[in-house]
Design a protein that fits this description.
Layout lengths: L4 H6 L1 H7 L5 H4 L7 E4 L4 E3 L15 E2 L13 E6 L5 E4 H5 L4 E8 L22 E10 H8 L7 E10 L10 E8 H4 L4 E7 L2 E2 L9 E4 L11 E6 L14 E4 L7 E4 L6 E6 L11 E8 L5 E7 L7 E3 L8 E8 L5 E11 L24 E5 L1
Parallel strand pairs: 4-13
Antiparallel strand pairs: 1-2, 2-3, 4-5, 6-7, 7-10, 8-9, 8-13, 10-11, 10-12, 14-15, 16-17, 17-20, 18-19, 18-21, 21-22
Bound molecules: the ligand Nc1nc2c(c(=O)[nH]1)N[C@H]1C(S)=C(S)[C@@H](COP(=O)(O)O)O[C@H]1N2 and molybdenum atom.
The site of molybdenum atom has 6 residues, from loops.
């Protein structure tokens, strides 16, 4: 017996959608394009199949606190601290300046955390806390020029409008998300204050009405809901670059120090083929994406034996951007295979097959094999 169209419509989630019901039941079938890693605050991952797919709805979301409501009409960005001119800039003021558009990769420093052994605390991201978008705004350097930074400046602190109290380690009440970046990086062409993402105004999740983009650095520097810029005369020691988003640096004098996470490390990720797509004698394409932060990717290599032998793949990425890579492969015998990809940047840095524990739970770019079966 087959179900009639009416029976199909009347049963299950589709019927609920058709009836216009808005419940958690319907939202589960509303073709949510992202994987929910945490419901509140919003933390959403791009599925592997959509990695670097165009479009803002496929772009991962990483938020530490509830999304703040910022009124675009009354919005003003203040710039103060170690400057000659304290500024208050509306969105219109910023839009009157010379604007730029750039395609830039944004990767969370915790991207790939699920691959850490032993399991680390924090959100268990797979490969999908990364994306690339076209960002439109003004260089932060141009704003700092207007403010006339005094000599002897240290970090430029970007402050978000979102806030909350953190329990462990306990903060002195609610704190805003903020992040300091050294003046030299703040003045680079790739450091922007942006209002558009993919030619549309920023969405609330991605930091409307104004956010920072710090090209080539991990996402924690790309402060969303930007409300305030404070220039300090020394490095900033806020929560999000001391307790969080810091890594161990082994100083030559034997005094390990925690330093803020900065530059994105080179990475190549395999997106296809999946587990069962390979057959003996049948040519296949191994493919994925690669990026290397401030550097370009000069080489991608692939191994089908877990990293013993490597051959070249096609694909190179420009600085700040990602690129798709492909490699042709004909399986010779049935059984399990371990696919691995690795890239090398133009500074000669190749991804390591070992995890560096000094990086704590951040900067995760060691090799992650994909196990497949040849039929
Ligand atoms: N104000 C504010 N800015 C923020 C964050 C935040 O929680 N609050 N998260 C940061 C982190 S850790 C990342 S990885 C990126 C994620 O940007 P997206 O949500 O647009 O993908 O935003 C950064 N900027
Ligand atoms: Mo992040």
């Amino acid at each position: 017996m087959s179900l009639s169209r009416r029976e199909l419509l009347c049963s299950g989630p589709i019927a609920a959608v058709a009836a216009g019901l808005h419940s958690q039941f319907t939202s589960a079938v509303a073709a949510e394009p992202l994987i929910v890693r945490m419901q509140e605050p919003r933390n959403l991952e791009t599925p592997l199949a959509d990695l670097f797919a165009p479009g803002t709805d496929k772009f991962f979301v990483r938020s530490h606190f509830a999304t703040p409501e910022v009124d675009t009409k009354t919005f003003a960005l203040t710039v103060g601290g170690h400057v000659e001119n304290t500024l208050s800039l509306t969105l219109d003021d910023l839009k009157k300046m010379e604007s730029v558009s750039r395609e830039i990769v944004l990767e969370c420093a915790g991207n790939g955390r699920v691959f850490l052994v032993p399991q680390a605390r924090g959100l268990q991201w797979g490969h999908g806390a990364v994306g690339q978008a076209k960002w439109t705004g003004v260089p932060l350097g141009a704003v700092l020029e207007r403010a006339k930074v005094k000599t002897g400046a240290g970090d430029v602190v970007l402050v978000g409008a979102d806030k909350g109290a953190i329990a462990d380690p306990a903060t002195p009440g609610p704190i805003n998300f903020d992040r300091g970046i050294p003046l030299a990086k703040a003045k680079k062409d790739e450091t922007l204050l942006v209002w558009n993402m993919n030619d549309e105004p920023l969405t609330a999740s991605h930091g409307a009405p104004l956010r920072a983009i710090v090209g080539g650095w991990y996402g924690m520097a790309a402060v969303k809901w930007l409300s305030r810029i404070v220039v300090l005369d020394k490095p900033h020691a806020g929560f999000f670059q001391t307790f969080d988003y810091s890594v161990w640096e082994r100083a030559k004098e034997g005094l390990p120090q925690l330093v803020p996470v900065t530059a994105i490390q080179p990475k190549a990720v395999i997106t296809a083929p999946g587990v069962d797509a390979l057959a003996v004698g049948k040519p296949c394409t191994i493919e994925g994406y690669t990026w290397a932060g401030e550097n370009s990717v000069s080489k991608v290599e692939v191994s089908t034996d877990g990293g013993k032998n490597w051959f070249a793949a096609n694909g190179k990425a420009e600085p700040f951007k990602s690129a798709r890579w492909t490699a042709s492969f004909v399986p010779q015998k049935a059984g399990p295979l371990k696919l691995v990809a690795r890239c090398t940047d133009d500074k000669g840095t190749t991804q390591s097959d070992k995890r560096d524990a000094d990086r704590r739970t951040y900067m995760i770019n060691h090799l992650v094999p994909v196990e497949v079966t040849v039929k």
